[in-house]
């Protein structure tokens, strides 16, 4: 939070989760600047709407210029590990035989995305997540798409 310089952690009553909230314009602006140019999915449309909203409300005359999707090689930065941590699932199941050795081992890693990102604007944009999933498939050398 030092880079963003704001935010609070909220522990909702009678829940088993935490919320990290940023509610002041300065923190939200800092987040937009950090994310700008580092997004690889159609969610960039939402960031661009946020940037437009922030630019209209700018009191210092400084505007954030909207950058395009990050098309750099997936191995060049930690984006993919964060994406998998957020939306991936690792699974391993096994049975123990009478000697206590693992048998019938089943394991997998799953990464799921909606086929399309639901945009709230009327501007026609490519909202398919297929492109990024196919880039990940290529990077991980997955042979088949089913």
Write the layout of secondary structure elements.
Blueprint (H helix, E strand, L loop, with lengths): L7 E3 L8 E3 L3 H11 L8 H13 L22 H9 E9 L5 E10 L18 H10 L7
Antiparallel strand pairs: 1-2, 3-4
Helix pairs in contact: 1-2
Protein name: Intronic protein at intron 3 of cox1 protein
Organism: Tricholoma matsutake
Keywords: Mitochondrion
Looking at this protein, list some descriptive labels.
146 residues; alpha+beta; two-stranded antiparallel sheet; two-stranded antiparallel ribbon
Q: Could you characterize the architecture of this molecule?
A:
This protein is an alpha+beta fold and 146 residues long. The protein has 4 helices and 4 strands, in the order ββαααββα. It has helices spanning 25-35, 44-56, 79-87, 130-139; strands at 8-10, 19-21, 88-96, 102-111. A two-stranded antiparallel ribbon has the order 1-2. α1 packs across α2 (44-56). The longest helix is centred in the middle third of the chain and has 13 residues, at 44-56. This is Intronic protein at intron 3 of cox1 protein. It comes from Tricholoma matsutake. InterPro entries: Homing_endonucl (IPR027434), LAGLIDADG_Endonuclease (IPR051289).
